[in-house]
């Protein structure tokens, strides 16, 4: 892991290039799904995943069997995490409101859930029951009527039992064994089996990301997610073992993941680099994590914490950890980060699984203008206007003046004619 002693350079991150070949492949897959529906889904799954599926929908018997393949401790952990995540997201709920003026005009905003949400749960390098919870719970809290889940099957045509249990605990009934760009296409266009949805959420590989980008406008999406990333700010009090473990926790996701540390201590930088090398030796996903650390990992040594904060705000990390003596003193200075983990006990892994905040976060610097997935992503708002006769008579001339200035006489007439009725 390289150590950089130059605070004037920009932090490095993996950029998800939109290669023409991959984009062309995605467009071709989407067209097949749009034109041929289920027939394309079966054919693409057989060709791309090597699985010949008898049907797309996960059966009730498969869900029941899933419970027999895991320990009770796992089911209990899912239930606990569900309660924590639901409690956190309940606090995000918005209410409709109306305001009545003395003249009788009523202005307001109606808050309503979207009708159908499609959630994508990855299943390539690993299974992610936690992603079921993080996608599904805010949709349920928002009041979404129909949740459709898609996730890739394994080589035997089955869905990971942990993923099925997580979905079942949330009450999600429509679970389909389909992944990749074809799954995004199915949710966006609808097929004979899979209903068209209003919004697609959830991370995936580059094909999923590009497919979501392509169908945006026909449906809404949460984001075009890039590789996972973590940034740790550490001072001389940081524990090198814990800092190294947190860096590796993101590096093991994907070879394209980015693990970065900014520290004010040259000694801590050296100790963390040594500790990263040591911890990688016995890691089950060592090959993936080593590739990430080798290609994208870096430790920056800076003169002070203010410099570290400035670099962090420019970088806008997905995950930010504050392993410093007084972490709460930095929070007010942090402007851009998807999630902030404060202090030694608040490892990023707690946020991934259990604490309550959502782990679907803005990546690639988009934390400068976007937020974690939440209840707001599954609602829409309608403005409400009930104008009184008194306010119409009072304001008609001003409204017409504005319309005429924009050379929209029809707009002006619509107001003037109403006033002339009296």
Automatic annotation (TrEMBL):
Broad enzyme group: oxidoreductase
Q: How is the cofactor bound?
A: Binds 1 zinc ion per subunit.
Please list the cofactors this protein needs: Zn(2+)
Catalytic reaction equation(s):
L-histidinol + 2 NAD(+) + H2O = L-histidine + 2 NADH + 3 H(+)
Q: Which residues bind NAD(+)?
A: 120, 182, 205
Give me the residues that bind substrate, please: 228, 250, 253, 319, 352, 406, 411
Pfam families on file: Histidinol_dh
Q: What does the UniProt keyword field contain?
A: Amino-acid biosynthesis, Histidine biosynthesis, Metal-binding, NAD, Oxidoreductase, Zinc
What EC number(s) does the entry state?
A: 1.1.1.23
UniProt KW DNA-binding keyword: no
HAMAP family named among the record's database cross-references: HisD
Q: Which PANTHER family match?
A: HISTIDINE BIOSYNTHESIS TRIFUNCTIONAL PROTEIN, HISTIDINOL DEHYDROGENASE HDH
- Say what the protein does: Catalyzes the sequential NAD-dependent oxidations of L-histidinol to L-histidinaldehyde and then to L-histidine.
Belongs to which family?
A: Belongs to the histidinol dehydrogenase family.
Q: What is this protein called?
A: Histidinol dehydrogenase
From the UniProt record, report the name of the gene that encodes this protein: hisD
